[in-house]
């Protein structure tokens, strides 16, 4: 029988001391969630934050202007770039 979309079949086990568990239970109760719901929601928020910080580049207005200018009006290839491209073509083309 096929599983329904969104079915939760994977588990993640965490070992923790009694004091940590008590803090998580207390925090979860303030959010009206189970400890599992609280830990998953909090971990997902932090995971998404870490991913954004690692994968998204944010530029200031002056930096964006420089970046855009380099993309729209790139400088002519110099000798080193032409040589590197020739080497690339020999090995890959």
UniProtKB/TrEMBL annotation:
UniProt GO BP: regulation of DNA-templated transcription
InterPro entries documented for this protein: Ribbon_hlx_hlx, TacA_1-like
Key words, A-Z: Toxin-antitoxin system
Record carries keyword Disulfide bond: no
Pfam families registered for this protein in UniProt: TacA1
Protein's name according to its UniProt entry: DUF1778 domain-containing protein
Family: Belongs to the TacA antitoxin family.
Keyword Kinase among record annotations: no
PANTHER family attached to this UniProt entry: ABC-TYPE TRANSPORT SYSTEM, COPG FAMILY HELIX-TURN-HELIX PROTEIN-RELATED-RELATED
Organism, as annotated: Pararhodospirillum oryzae
């Amino acid at each position: 029988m096929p599983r329904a979309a969104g079915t939760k079949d994977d588990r993640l086990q965490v070992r923790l001391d009694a004091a940590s568990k008590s803090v998580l239970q207390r925090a979860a109760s303030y959010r009206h969630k189970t400890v599992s719901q609280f830990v998953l929601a909090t971990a997902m928020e932090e995971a998404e934050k870490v991913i954004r910080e690692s994968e998204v580049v944010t530029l200031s207005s002056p930096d964006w202007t420089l970046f855009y200018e380099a993309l729209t009006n790139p400088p002519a290839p110099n000798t080193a770039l032409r040589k590197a491209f020739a080497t690339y073509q020999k090995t890959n083309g």
